[in-house]
Amino acid sequence: MFQVIFIGTGGGAPSKRGLPAYLMKKDNFTALLDCGEGTQLAMIRNSLNVMSIKLVAITHLHADHVLGLPPLIQTMSMYGRKEKLYVMGPPGIKELLEESFELTFFKPDFPLEFVDELTLGEIHVTPFRTCHVVPSQGYLIQERDSSNLDVEKLRREGINDWRIMRTLKEGKEVHWEGRTLRPEDYLIKRRGLRIAYTGDTRPCNEVIRAVRGVDLLLHDSTFEAGVNAGEYGHSTSVEAAEVAKEAEVRRLALIHISSRYRDATELVKQAKRVFPMSFAPSDLSFLNLRQG
Ligand SMILES: [Zn+2]
Ligand SMILES: [Zn+2]
């Protein structure tokens, strides 16, 4: 199971909604995607553990997506963090952090490692190109596929020997009573969960390709239909829904809602006409994502 915590679902300027920040949690793995101003306050005030974050992945260097990161790292250091923190981001992310540390007379007590992609345990995180007005990238978070033995089928065929089961589970053939048992006949494949986050983007083919078939897509949905979102490198909720439909994703979270809207009711209504599995999460809400 993956837990997605929508910390800040607004964009541009803060409103009732905070600036972009999303937590992706599975077992010991926690990634923070984007870190707008106010992220650490929202986390600490709501008992979300900032120390458990293993990876921070920034989509682009617009202030609303990144300026919460230098203070978050300072807090981790003050809390006595020693564990390495992985950081991903567009060109300039390293310089932004290093220069802000230098100018604020600060040096973290723990290592930062800047990486282009990352595999930690069963989770793989890779960037994909997005279509904003500055260099930008989205992120795909994938859980490794797994397979379980079809124990019922084995039982029906009178196979109870755990050594046979283990060998099949390892993906190897077994010769048994004159028969060859092939692993593919006894393994039930389970595809790992996949989540994609676009950050700020226009609807574009690069994004559609990268997010194809994901279980949850968090897509830029800054404006209502009728606004020329392209002028700002953003998307309307209808455009987000069109991407979700075209890419055949399972669910769509409408995020980066402009502060000009008091609530997202209209944006959701418009999106649902195109892609019924659309919703607009509120700040600090969460979604538990399961297989199937
Ligand atoms: Zn933004
Ligand atoms: Zn932006």
From TrEMBL:
Keywords: Endonuclease, Hydrolase, Metal-binding, Nuclease, tRNA processing, Zinc. Residues 18-256 form the Metallo-beta-lactamase domain. The active site is at D64. GO terms for molecular function: 3'-tRNA processing endoribonuclease activity; zinc ion binding. It holds the Pfam family Lactamase_B_2. InterPro entries: Metallo-B-lactamas, RibonucZ/Hydroxyglut_hydro, RNase_Z/BN. Zn(2+) 1 binds at H60, H62, H132, D200. Zn(2+) 2 binds at D64, H65, D200, H256. Binds 2 Zn(2+) ions. Homodimer. Zinc phosphodiesterase, which displays some tRNA 3'-processing endonuclease activity. Probably involved in tRNA maturation, by removing a 3'-trailer from precursor tRNA. Belongs to the RNase Z family. This is Ribonuclease Z. It comes from Metallosphaera yellowstonensis MK1.
